[in-house]
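Appendix B, example 12.
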Amino acid sequence: MFTSLKSKIVCLIILMFALIAGLVIFFTIKDVGTAMVKAEERSASNVLSLVDTTIASNYRNLLFIKVRTVLTRKERLRDAMEVAMSGLNAFHNLSLDGTIEEEEARKQALEWIRTLQYGDGDYFFIFDQNATALAYPEPDMVGRPLSQFMDIKSRAVTTAMWEETGAYGEAFDVFRWKQVGGWDLVPRIGYFVRFEPWDWVV
């Protein structure tokens, strides 16, 4: 009977140790699993944060490059326009001092602008209050209305630029315009200046 009681006690102790060991193993595995899940979540969060930071940085870089490109383009347009305006002023002065008649000065100025080009496929043109082309690199466009071309704000380019150059003397606009030699519309940025002596927009 003693042996039987001793055996029962030993079995009970073994069972308790086994139960405790089982509980320890169970909670250890659970804690380890939870810790691993949290570690993976932190790792995934760090990766996503890194990706987000990289995308934001690349976007800022692209935006900076785009802004710098546009600003550089605007400066080039201003520089080119200075040449055009100097030429137009020269023709106007010739008419003022009586060297040539004003009508002839206008005619020569328009022809000069028509042939004036710079850069790769960039050119000048002149229109009046009625949006009629007075000078254009394509001779058959001269005398035609230019009011059909729209800018990114869905305004007629010539109407909007007539108003803005009247108010501020100059204006930039972004629009779709026909290619020289065809009618395919391509995106453009234009710089427009009012030539007050003859009431033109260049």
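The longest strand covers residues 185-195. The chain has a mean pLDDT of 88.
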